Sequence to fold (442 residues):
Amino acid sequence: MGIRISDHFDIRRLARFVMPSVVMMIFTSIYSVVDGLFVSNFVDTTAFAAINFIMPVLMIFGAIGFMLGAGGSALVSKTFGEGRQQKANEIFSMLVYVGIGLGVVLAVSGGLLVRPAAALMGAEGELLDRCVMYARIVLCALPFFMLQNMFQSFLVTAGRPKLGLKVTVCAGVLNMVLDALLIVVLKWGLAGAAIATAMSQTFGGLLPLLFFARENDSTLRLGRMKMDWRALGHACGNGSSEFVTNISMSVVGVLYNVQLLAYAGQDGIAAYGVIMYVSFFFVAIFLGYSIGVSPIIGYNYGAENHAELKNVFEKSMKFVALAGVVLTALSYALAAPVAWVFVGEDAALCRMTAHAFRINAFSFLLCGFGIFGSALFTALNNGVISALISFLRMFLFQAVTVLVMPMIWEVEGIWYAVVVAEGLAAIVSLALIAKYKKRYNI
Fold:
C-alpha cells in the first residue's frame, strides 16, 4: 500500500515519500547539464553562451506554471484535509485548463518579444541570432512545459510521486537521446538542442495530462471546467512566491550576464553558465524535498493535526541543515573536474570556472533555509510571507549584491554576490519562521 499525505511520518517514511520528488528534480537538472555538455563540446562556445544568455528570458515565460502548480497544490491539499474531495478536484481541473490557455498565449507573445528582449540585454550579431532561433523553437513547447511544472506538484498531492519521477526520467532520457541524435549524428547544432528540449518538455507535460484525464487510482482526476475566480486568485496569490522566485531568478540571471559581459566578456558568461548548470543539480535537492514535503504540511495544516505538522517541520529543518553541509563539501571538491568536463579545451576559461565554482559552493550551505522557508509558508497558505522570502532571496539581495560588489571587487564581487545574498536570505527566513512558529503550531 502506498504512502498517503494523511499518514504519520517517521524519518524512513518521510524519506520514502519525498525521495521521488528529490530524484525527479535531480534528474531534471542532470539532463539540463547533459544538454549543455552536448552544446559546449559538439557545437561551439558561442552556441553555449547563447543558451545561457537567453535562458532567463525563457524561464520568465514558464514561471506561471510553477505558480499554478505550487499555489494550486497547496490549496488542493488543504481542501482535501478539510474533507472536500469534489471541490479539490474542481479546483485542480480549473487550474490545469487555465495553465494550458495561458501557455498558448505566452508562447505566441514570447516568440514576438524574444528578439527585442535579447537585444535590450546586449546581445548582437551572431549571438543575438542564435538566441532568437533557440528561444523560438523551445517556446513552441511552452504550454507543455508549464503543465510539466504544474504536474510535478499535483502528482505528489495525488499520492503518485513515483509516477512524476518516471515521467521526468523518461523525458530526460528522451532529451539525451535526441541531443545525441540531432547534435552529434545529424549535425543540427543549436537548433537540434532546441528541438530536443522542446520534444522532451512536450512529453513531460502530455503524459501526466493523459493520466489525469482518464480513470485512475489517485485522488485527482480532470473533470469539466468550473471557473472559480476566488480559488484561482487564492492559488495565484499562494503560489506567488514560486512566481516571484522564477521571475526574480530570470531577472537576476540577466543582471549577472550583463555584469559578466562588462567585467569578463563572453568567457565570463560561459563560466557562469557552467556554474548555473551544476548549481541546478545541487539546488534541486532542496527544491525536490520542498515539493515532496509541502502537500504533507498543507494537509496537516488543513486537518489541524498540530502534532504531525510539528513533527514534519522539525525533521525538515534537520534535513536542510545536514544537506547544506554535505553539498557544500561535495561542490568544493568537484569544482576542478566539473570545469574540465565543460570547458577543458580552454585552459584560462577552465581556471576561471573552477575558481568561481569553489566560491559558489558556500551558497549551498545557506540556500536550503530560504528555499524551504518559502515552501513552508506556501504550504501553510501564507502566500504573502512566502513571496516576501522569495523576493528577498531571489531578487533584492542578489540584485543589490551583483550590482554593488563588482564596483569594489570587480569580477570577484560577482562570484561572491550569490553567497552574500543567500546568507542574508537565510537570516530572514529563520527569523520569519521563529516569528510565526506559534501561530502555525510548528
